Amino acid sequence: MFSVKDLKFGKDAIPTVSQRAMEIHHDKLYAGYVNKRNEIEEALKTVDRSKSAATYSSYRALKLEETFTANGQILHELYFDTLTPKPSQPSDSLEFVKKVKEDFGSWEAFIEDVIACAMAARGWAITSYDYRDGKIHNFLADAHNHGGVWETWPVWTIDVYEHAYFIDFGSDRKSYLLDIIKYADWEEINRRYLIAKEIEKILKKT
Ligand code: FE
Q1: Which residues surround ligand 1, an ion (CB under 5 A)?
Q2: How many CA atoms are closer than 13 Å to the CA of 115, on its beta-carbon side?
């Protein structure tokens, strides 16, 4: 059983997202993914596995939507967890900031790529650390379960589905991006980057 994670701030705390938009996003859409994931897990206990087929089968439908709901849950938790109502300039002392400057040449070049990635995506822009080349990458996903790169560690995501900005910004996605980035929780993003570095150490030992 998976549970709906509470927001770490009030639903009216991020000035760039209205309370109504946040309520719909967290309480209905995100919670919906968690609840449907639980429903799918329940249905998988009794589904007829003998009829499993790639053209159509109940088992396939459940397994496919399991990836959609699971990633819908995970990406939204990461999106909400990396927002803060108290915006701050990313500090040069953060390891994540140092790494980004190393990989992208400058902080501005990194943000430019994040925005380009979020403008090009139909679902998500996901900043991840890739253990294979030891670099930060911005990936896009057109749906929760279309895109994403295995065995990279996501440190930051931006939801670019229309539901994330249409209520407050209409079709002006660029303004939503420029605003939402101001409320990025750089301390939390840095903490997730440090976790990635720890996982990398474990992977290198094995
Ligand atoms: Fe969303």
Answers
A1: 159, 161
A2: 17
